[in-house]
Amino acid sequence: MAQNKSFNGRDMGIDLGTANTLVYVRGRGIVLNEPSVVAVNTADGSVLSVGSAAKETMGRTPTNIVAVRPLRDGVIADFEIAERMLRYFIKKVMGSRRLARPRVVVCVPSGITGVERRAVMEAATRAGARQVHLVEEPIAAAIGAGLPVSEPTGCMVVDIGGGTTEVAVVSLGGIVTARSVRTAGDSMDVAITSYVKKQYALAIGERTAEEIKVSIGSASPAGSLSVPRVSEAVRRPERNVEVFIPGQSEDPEDTQALLPPDRCTIRGRDQATGLPKVLELTADEVRHALSEPVDSIVAAVRSTLDETPPELAGDIMDRGIVLTGGGALLRGLDVRLGRELNIPVLVADDPLDCVAIGTGRCVEDFASLRTAMDARPRRADTVRV
Questions:
Q1: Is the confidence at residue 164, as pLDDT, over 50?
Q2: Strands of the 20-25 sheet, one edge to the other
Q3: pLDDT bracket for residue 242 (50, 70, 90)
Q4: Binding annotation for ATP
Q5: Binding site residues, as ranges?
Q6: Is the separation of the CB atoms in 215 and 261 below 8 Å?
Q7: What SS3 class is residue 323?
Q8: Distances 325 to 93, 128, 328, 378, 385 between C-alpha atoms, Å
Q9: What is the rounded CA–CA span in Å between residue 321 and residue 140?
Q10: Could you give the CA distance from residue 63 to residue 295 in angstroms, rounded to a whole number?
Q11: Residue 221 to residues 158, 159, 217, 288, 321: CA-CA distances in angstroms?
């Protein structure tokens, strides 16, 4: 009993995402949610800032400072920077208990290779972890969404993160079939950037593209006309994006103000003149720009269903497909998937935190969920787009 009390609050689950890192501490819940960004001084290699402070510097740094994202496509791209970032987050969570070495459960994509798997474990160990266990993101997302993963019934989860889209059918605490497509939120941002550059010769940054996606992005015409769900995850546009709402008025009782925006004004650099330029972008244009990455996600879901055993496919028809991750907040994505696949599609109650919550439950109930962790790599199911 004393030993359990000693480690209570130390063990943690880490959702090591391409865009954001979330930390769940045993007995305390999610205590940290910060961008997976590190600002580094290239002159001496020192770390200047990590997380939110580092993300604020993206695209606004002098020549001797660079904002680095140590994870790409859901896996570690820069081992040393990833280790420093993990050490900073663990130290920030642990506070003054410098001698504490927590047991850590880390989420990884289902398509992770053996080399990528060892890199995550070594980075977490060198960052101060006592033990490191890995859990595949679809399992964690399903647990966090409240799906009955331990029962002999089929559950399908689509986790759309920043670097990867994880599609999996889960039953009896394990993955029956899965597909990891390296097309997700970042690919959508790149698609918007490329579209604006090609159509209007206007260069915009990653942050501006992300704000456009959040503000007026959609996956289907029906999605752009529906009332967006209320979520803390939808942030207000920053100064490079101004949103216009159809029928907007100053009257607080005017229900037209509840409609989603149909256009926005963006600011960037004109590639022809090199001068700043203001441009108006419509929701239809953004939906067209997002068509390719959305098509890739739909194809991944369809391919996974093709490989699903018939009995489990029947369960999925009854229960539906559950969307998690930041990409699940894209307007109309559930409508588009449901129309393409003729299967009910639901969005999890808290899609951004599902993976972190599921990882935390693995920490809280480590013994019973032990079989869901440390699964073998699924290299053959990984698809690069």
A1: yes
A2: 29-35, 20-25, 12-16, 103-108, 131-136
A3: low
A4: 18-20, 162-164, 210-213, 326-329
A5: 18-20, 162-164, 210-213, 326-329
A6: yes
A7: strand
A8: 23, 27, 6, 20, 19
A9: 15
A10: 38
A11: 21, 22, 10, 10, 21
